[in-house]
Amino acid sequence: MPVEAVGLSKHYGGVTALSDVDFELAPGEVHAVVGENGAGKSTLVKILSGVVRPDSGAISIDGTPVTFGSARDALTRGVALVAQELAVFPDLSVIENLFPLAPIRRGPLLSPRRMAALAAPVLDELGLHVPLGARAGTLPLADQQLLEIGRALLRRPAVLILDEPTSALQREAVDRLMSVLRRLVSRGVAVLYVSHFLEEVLRIATRVTVLRDGRVAMAGVSTSTVDLDGVVTAMLGSRTIERRPVTQRHTAGTAIAVKGLSVPGQLTDVSFTVAAGEIVGLAGLQDAGHLAVLAALSGRATPTGHVRINGASAPRSPRAAVRAGIAFVPSDRKRYGLMLDKPVWQNTSAVSWLGIGRATWWLRQQQLIDTAWQYGTRLSIRGAPTDLTGTLSGGNQQKVVMAKWLAAEPTVILLDDPTRGVDISARAEMHAVIAELAAAGKPVLLASTDLAELCELCDRVLVFQRGRLVSELPHTELSEQALSVAMNAGFGQR
Ligand SMILES: Nc1ncnc2c1ncn2[C@@H]1O[C@H](COP(=O)(O)OP(=O)(O)OP(=O)(O)O)[C@@H](O)[C@H]1O
């Protein structure tokens, strides 16, 4: 057994993140850890990889007790972590990110040519084809995620810990990662895999452990003896997921009209309309142009062409978009979404604040905290309005991003992977909220790497390839299979 943990506990102030957790990971297995947002998954993997020290409990590797002083300490013992929050160095190049210790260990072993030679097969295996000299911060989120995985693989770990490795990845990249993991496992590597994609988990993992409220609710059960229902029941305990029927919507009038929209290098001559109350999906592989549509409509790109949003022209900046009532919920919460060093309530009121001015903002503090409670309860955010946002679990942070836009009562909703890293019950709740916004007559544009999400929510989906709008699937024709085919079909169908 390379890793054996007994009685791990971790408290943050009054919050119990992990309580008396036993966990084992064998060579040549993928052991998945699942649970709702805030269940303690990241805390467990951070302890096992030396990032966080437990309050109590013991860890042994190959039967030898270990105490990790740091992540580097764990690395020297063969334990590598790909953390949930991406930690690429944005100003360093791809190759510098892959070999962050190279400047310290200078010498013939790590000459630039040698580094490139070592990196090439790993990046190839992962399907990450980017110039080695490119600045990591300029890469799309999915490539940054692959870059981090590549960095961990180059360490040739005996134990590889992946915390939500596929949250930004398209299906093809996920499939490639699965093949890589299968190869690693066949070589005897032990893999700990944390994910909210339960089907993916049951596909790749040999065993699954479920955490609930910091405790083990299902311990290392073989995936051949448990199904999706069993895992979900263990995750939720006595609770059930409330799936409220999607409110009947009446779409009327054109709310968004786009004609000949282009963004240099990203989008070419795209035209479509969205009715009030309609949810229109945007789908495409990486760099297909669908995200450029959101950027153009939210003031984050300078487009050419003709745009009318509720009768007004396209906003020229993110601030102008906010003032025009256009909400943009990003997938990259670290970069665009949140002030992590501020309490939750300041984040949830950050957008409304732009409209009401700083002085009033302070005067209305209690009211804003109440609003944060209200949305926190609605989206089941685990954490109080006064908690620092950075102390919330990843999925709960994503819910705060959503809450801050809801609190601003927007008139146009633009969403980019809004449920990334969010657990199944919160996902259902967020879907209900999106459907309600549409039912209230708001136009919604939804980009998502989660094809099931597009099928569940959208009235129709626009499919993009290489900067062009190539097809449109009405609700009646929507399926994950159909979407996948449309996204991958040869360029220029139209
Ligand atoms: N640094 C911290 N300070 C305070 N509380 C924390 C800290 N880190 C985690 N917590 C709390 O511990 C609990 C468990 O968090 P953890 O990140 O382990 O959950 P998780 O299962 O990984 O959730 P998610 O699926 O959202 O990533 C949460 O209530 C979280 O708010």
Question: How is this fold's topology laid out?
Answer:
Blueprint: E1 3-12, E2 15-25, E3 30-34, H1 41-48, E4 56-61, E5 64-66, H2 71-76, E6 79-82, H3 94-98, H4 112-126, H5 141-154, E7 159-163, H6 171-186, E8 190-194, H7 198-204, E9 207-212, E10 215-222, H8 228-236, E11 252-263, E12 267-276, E13 279-284, H9 290-297, E14 304-309, H10 318-323, E15 326-329, H11 333-337, H12 344-348, H13 350-356, H14 358-363, H15 365-378, H16 394-407, E16 412-416, H17 424-439, E17 444-447, H18 451-457, E18 460-465, E19 468-474, H19 480-488
Helix pairs in contact: 4-5, 15-16
Adenosine-5'-triphosphate (ATP) binds next to strand 2, helix 1 and helix 16.
Pfam families: ABC_tran
Protein name: Ribose transport system ATP-binding protein/rhamnose transport system ATP-binding protein
GO molecular function: ATP binding; ATP hydrolysis activity
Per DSSP, the total helix count is 19
Structural class: alpha/beta
- For the record, give the distance between the C-alpha atoms at the N and C termini, rounded to a whole number: 56 Å
Indicate the percent of residues in helices: 25-40%
Number of strands: 19
Number of domains: 2
- Please tell me the overall pLDDT: 87
CATH architectural type of the largest domain: 3-Layer(aba) Sandwich
**Over all CA atoms, what is the radius of gyration?**
23 Å
